[in-house]
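Morning!

This is the sequence you dropped in the shared folder:
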Amino acid sequence: EGVRGRDEVVQRARARVAHLAARINLERDAAARADDRHARAQELARQREELTRAARTTPDAGERARLEEQARALKEREEEEKRVEYRAKKAADDEARERRKREQAEAQRLLEEERAREAAAVEEARRAEEAAARAKVEAEAGRTLAQGLDKTKSQGFMARLNGLFGSQRQVDESVLAELEEILFTADIGVRTASTLVDVAREKLKRSELKDSERIKDLIRTEVARIVDLPVPRSLEGGGPPHVVMVVGVNGAGKTTTIGKLAAKLTGEGKKVVLAAGDTFRAAATEQLDVWAERAKAQLVKGAEGGDPGSVIFDAIKKAQAEGADVVIADTAGRLHTKAPLMEELKKVKRVMDKAMPGTPHEVLLVLDSTNGQNAIQQAKQFHEAVGVTAIALTKLDGTAKGGVIIGICDELKLPVVWVGVGEKVADLRRFEPREFVQALFD
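The structure's back. Tokens below.
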């Protein structure tokens, strides 16, 4: 393409040179003809002046009359030559003026064509870059949810439940007591564990549980019901731009999750602005800067220890001005000041609404799944403060506490939308309830 482009430039240059050469030759011929006409007019004027002088000095009246007649004839020829010279000059001037107009129009046309070619090349390069980004994401296929839950199945409460399910014992109170112990020591939460045991006990009273396999079917059905919550549209639907406020404690994987979401969006051709609202932790801004460069997203940041609301306000305004699709705002997970974290987050949320009424369109809480039941308590606190709309659960592949998903969905009725099962961008996966249940029980 580069060689072909250079050849086109060379051909256009040669055509331009040939056109200029032809024009110069025409102008040279026209100038030569004008010079000839001017010279003839001057020669006729000289001859006329000689005849006029001769007529004045001759004593013969007849000869004088003849010379004067010849002088008049030369005068008419001289004037005719001047008229021809004037018409030729005027025609040449008119032709030059029209030629300049045509050349200006041609130059404008060529300029517009060149601009169009450059714009097309830029657009083609952008599409190629997006295709490469998508290909990269697709190439990093990532781990499955089942792989991410491997420790929960092999080491967590599901391993103990599977032992109970496979015992082939007749279900009685001793089996239910064992079930109760397993669930209460799991990370699904006391309330959820109590609900599951109560449902099983009620089924047993109605003689609907004959063996341990029936318990497995029961638990599976209840878990499927608990996690199957209405899921809000994530990363789209608001604005534009769609504004996401990301909250969570330090160390939960907030910044990494933001970076992966940005990479997914830019891979889809979306224009993304990241707001470095965790101004109390310098490493957070530096980490987000790396992710912004990797994801080819714009980053808006402020001074260390500065006002986080101001940074996020500027990011939203920048996104509006530049037609961005999504704004993802990082926030503090811990403060180095006397201000309580939740009060600071409430303030940031109010500032976002001032920057763009109705924002944030989404409040995404990032939780570390290795925290187990502590993650449920964190979710309660953040939800009371800023109204969480969805949850991203990270580090699922590194823990046996994957059952925390069940407790979060049951106690808070907040949908888990994203789960992290590895380090790659593709390892941040959308949470699918059916896939989760299949991964646990099949």
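Headline: Strands lie at 242-247, 272-276, 298-300, 326-330, 362-368, 390-394, 416-420, 428-430.

More detail when I'm at my desk.
O.
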